[in-house]
Amino acid sequence: MRQSKYFLKTSKTVSDEDKLVSARLLKQAGYIRESVAGRLFFLPVGQKVQQKIIKIVKEEMDAGGAQEMLAPILHPLELWKETNRTSTTGFELMKVKDRRGAEFALGGTAEEMLVDLVRKFEVSYKDLPFHLYQFSSKFRDELRARGGLLRVREFIMKDGYSFHVSEEDFKVTYEQMKKVYSRIFERMGLKTAIVESDNGYIGGEYCHEFIVESKEGESRYFTTEDGAYAAHEDIAKFIRHREKGGEEIKERQDVEGVGIIGVEELAKFLNIPVEKTTKTILFETDKGQVVAAAVNGLYDINEVKLKHAVVCVDIKLASPEVVKKVTGAEVGYAGILNLSKEVKIIMDESLKGRQNFECGANKTNYHSTNINFGRDLPEPETFYDIALAKEGYVSPDGKSKLIEKRGIEVGNVFQLGYHYTNLMKGAEFTDQDGKQKPYYMGCYGIGIGRSMAAVVEKYNDERGIIWPEVVAPFKVHLLALKGAEAEAEKIYQSLLKDGIEVLYDDRPLSAGAKFADADLIGIPYRVLVSEKTLKEQSVEIKKRSSQESKLVKISELIEQLKM
Amino acid sequence: MRQSKYFLKTSKTVSDEDKLVSARLLKQAGYIRESVAGRLFFLPVGQKVQQKIIKIVKEEMDAGGAQEMLAPILHPLELWKETNRTSTTGFELMKVKDRRGAEFALGGTAEEMLVDLVRKFEVSYKDLPFHLYQFSSKFRDELRARGGLLRVREFIMKDGYSFHVSEEDFKVTYEQMKKVYSRIFERMGLKTAIVESDNGYIGGEYCHEFIVESKEGESRYFTTEDGAYAAHEDIAKFIRHREKGGEEIKERQDVEGVGIIGVEELAKFLNIPVEKTTKTILFETDKGQVVAAAVNGLYDINEVKLKHAVVCVDIKLASPEVVKKVTGAEVGYAGILNLSKEVKIIMDESLKGRQNFECGANKTNYHSTNINFGRDLPEPETFYDIALAKEGYVSPDGKSKLIEKRGIEVGNVFQLGYHYTNLMKGAEFTDQDGKQKPYYMGCYGIGIGRSMAAVVEKYNDERGIIWPEVVAPFKVHLLALKGAEAEAEKIYQSLLKDGIEVLYDDRPLSAGAKFADADLIGIPYRVLVSEKTLKEQSVEIKKRSSQESKLVKISELIEQLKM
């Protein structure tokens, strides 16, 4: 491609909004442009990269036995109503009406569409498992879009859906897809952590995100030094502080302590260690259930974990009115003692086995100390995991400490189980016994634009992008300096003839301008033709990823590039 | 691909609605499925065909110097307002609002988006021309969808937009793209007529549709026997009947003729030839202008031509009230005599040079005869082409007669000229003289699904589809009959190893069922492995397009297939 004819315009100016390296570089180098916030053009050179990523994903998905298809972008809204997803998607759905009044959702994910497609066929156990996937535009009505490709409102996603006779059969595909995904990202030059994640309203244990470590990432997760454990902050487990036990049971006291805020201050005031204090927080669910969540004062509450413990779609802090009503006290003195029966009490594992602990007295200005299970309140049947993991906490295997990391989620795999097949009538196969049974499902996503951004976040320097060859828009950036145009043209033709992807900078610009653009655009091999190199019948080859350059005879250039 | 694992389900039943061969066969053979009317799933085997078509289009577009990019599907509605296209698109636009209240159009075509993209860059005359194109989902809120892929509400279109310094420069690209398009369709096995068409509100002489002749097509056009002329019915020209002239000017008469309907009846009643009668029809434009359109009684009026003559966006028959008001007579007696001044009179070329002709008297029950220009009404400065072409009329070159044809429009190319660049502020380039000038534009579309349907309409028989190899989902359909599975498996592996695209029917079905499916699906080469063929270390090869089959040694199979 001749650069003089290519719609590739680099820019020296940087928008203040583009704080992300990938956003800044991809725009400056002419790969992407914003239409409006969160909706992007892929310019020709950017579309080339996008297609190379798609090609890698397709090759590996096909090799893994998945089958590409394509669903409409507009989904009949009735389908989303069938699964109650019009309001509980976790992302804001966009809806549109046609002129006959039919309502549609702009596809965010396609579970309902795929189930609706498959249920219209007669499916036998012999047909299962199968795995259908597509590359298509997805829509998310995000409140805030981030610059570049990391959080957008419209993007190409590879979304796949697998259908199985059983959970057991699903597990096989699930483990295989984890390998397929690792290979996909590895081929792009991305090292991914496979991070246990929250499966939202679907639940279940099979849910992993593929995360590229990056300070710019929006995903926070925890790992251990040996890498054996990796879990998203929403679900990360850790081992709680345990009392030795065997204490002498002391007499309960209700101590007056006006306006004391925070467990440290309270512990000091009561002259007890912080680990003897308790945090009790009151919540309300989307269905109006009041919940008292209690953790050892050492910890904080994780609302995602709490939602799962309560089994609800949404939860928020209770209003001061509700707190007063159920505790009989002002906010700040809630405890797990003598709460009205309508309150559901959820105790964290960190409360298990405690003796002589403090908790709010449910009486304004009062704190109860030396509380004990059995005497002051019944010990619950179940203690839950509702505490927030933090760096330095003991890892679940007890052998090391949690390390906090941030990263970019580029893919995810998770079970759908029977969630959709139970909600959607007729989503069944005929089993060996002749009976109709719902299929068990899995789901697998990869963000194409995000993967592109993650590659740039990882491969860049102060001068520009440094594409790994496999996703680079071109292999070679051929630069003709003044006086060397005729020879450069010959080299350009011979590279084309040999099927080497080459961008030929044939513009009448200074060497400096061409070098700067080449570094910014980031094509792996820069091949320079100048009067100086021609004196030795040579060109200068420089890898974008390296500082060194070398002279290579023109006659050996293609051989060199193919090595 | 193993058919037992492939989501490819053929069906024996035919929906009553699928009257189109392509719709019926593509559904029965498992290529496409409807989500709702006009919105289709491409199943894995169908998506393969779609991608092969896309690949051909991409290769030829790239070879023609066009550059692939990708625009968002949601277009800011302000852009469409800038060009007054929210209501005048010729197709019903779908609109959607996001949760911040921003309005978007679901892309129908992308002129505004591309101009908006390009105008945000500094463009110099040195950058021009360039041609940007994309493959993306387009939305049309069609009132009626037709079964299959011919008239749908959502489809993948290749749309391209070229930018030029001048009309002259555009013409070069335009002629080149006509060649590119012919090659694209030729590669798919489609012979296309390049048919002059109506360029709607854009106007101008450069507008052609690529039409595959088919009885099922929705496009009606006219050609001549030698093929030198091809024009869409909307604009087809023809040579009018001409009077010899030199008649003696007769006295005008107003003849009473109550309730006479139609020119034949009138001619008989007045005892004159039909060619002496005149049809005068009253219309109203979208802006309320009343128009009297007149043609020789031999012809009918073409409303598309009339719109261009009047220069308006929309036109419809005038209401009886309006007719009464401007003619002073009941409907049926309108003429071009003594009309009130607010009426715009448009006379067809067929009125030129007439003498002693009849026309409505603008007086209930009366017809005027022996009307002559100059004496009874002024001769207009311009006669227009507003008559409808019909089969058998004399072709524009006067040498032959028009032949009426129907076909499927698979692509179109047309000038946008300065239409968008004049309406969109800042859509300019810096010319050699340093001045800012609007760019001249062209536009080029191909319907991918329509092309697929057109191929099936052309290549099929009573048993199913007969894919041309270049767009076939697989090259080989390998059928294993009972007892030959082990050997078939070996052949399958060796074909895969050799990179031959093969669908392997490994299902435990009867030979008859496999043959029927193979014929329906339409893969070019059927390779049969049975105990009988194995006795001769052979397989049987049969081309789908031929009745003959032949035995080929297994050792020579790959060589044979590569021939």
Summarize the structure in words.
- Two copies of one chain form a homodimer.
- Chain A has 563 residues and is α+β, with helices and mostly antiparallel strands.
- Helices cover 25% and strands 28% of the residues of chain A.
- Chain A is built from 14 helices and 30 strands.
- In chain A, strands 3, 7, 8, 9, 10, 11, 12, 20 and 23 form a nine-stranded mixed beta sheet that branches.
- The longest helix of chain A has 21 residues, at 167-187.
- The relative contact order of chain A is 0.14.
- The mean pLDDT of chain A is 94.
- Chains A and B meet through strand 1, strand 2, helix 2, strand 3 and strand 4 of A and strand 1, strand 2, helix 2, strand 3 and strand 4 of B.
Short note summarizing the structure:
Chain A is of the alpha+beta class and 563 residues long. In chain A, 25% of the residues lie in helices and 28% in strands. In chain A, helix 1 packs across helix 10.
Measured by DSSP, the beta-strand proportion of chain A falls in 25-35%
Percentage of residues in helical conformation of chain A: 10-25%
Mean model confidence by pLDDT of chain A? 94
Oligomer type:
homodimer
- How much is the radius of gyration of chain A in Å? 30 Å
Structural class of chain A: alpha+beta
Number of helices in the DSSP assignment of chain A: 14
Most extensive interface between two protein chains, with residue counts: A-B, 56 and 56 residues
Spatial gap, N to C terminus of chain A = 22 Å
Number of strands of chain A: 30
Q: Which regions of chain A contain 5 or more consecutive residues with pLDDT less than 50?
A: none
The main sheet of chain A comes to:
9 strands, mixed
Task: Name the overall outline of chain A.
Answer: globular
